[in-house]
Specification:
5-stranded mixed sheet; Nucleotidyltransferase, domain 5; alpha/beta; 6 helices
Length: about 240
Amino acid sequence: MRKFLLIESGTNVCSVAFAVDGKVVGIKESNDEKAHASQLTVFIDQLAKETGINIPDLEAVVVSKGPGSYTGLRIGVSAAKGICYAAEKPLISISSLDSMVCGATLLYKSIVEKNGIDFLCPMIDARRMEVYTALYDKTLRKIKDIEALIVDELTYKSNLNDKKILFFGNGAAKCRQTINHPNAFFVDDFSPSAQFMLPLALVAFANQTFEDAAYFEPYYLKDFVATVSQKNLIPGLH
């Protein structure tokens, strides 16, 4: 039996799943974006006990590679690499946006068909009016490559003039008023999940598309920028 561990940690959601022969047999998720570090390995341990699947039983470990949260991606990829290295298992990485589109085609099939949607546009919040995004058709073919995009009233206007686009993800809500076009459709209930990576992971496994666990790094898209507090934290120092 083909057994996978799937890890999604690049957004506000921490999601872990076990799959056997193309079916998810256990999943644990949390929307607390500040608890990824404390919850991810706990979820893996709990699911291993609940499903009876031990790490040595796995065929591969699957992880979202980004783009997304710098910290979340580091946590997920570090855990995945550690397991692969220790247990000598292959590592499969899946684009966070590809995974989201894969999930959306299942969740919003009726919306797509009813409204004649042409393109799917996942959006991951990148703070302020910036999002990580790409554009896909209904066959999951990428129409526009992944980018860090500052959203304004002209965003995707050339596409929206003759195509209907479904926007979703935690970056889409803040764009609803800015991307004001009759061909723009928004859904607010989408949540990334490890289970959405499974169809893509099966293809990657069949093609033996593996990462080098020793050197693999997440796809951050942008450099990490640390912010410095403007408060005087130590009295007397200026």
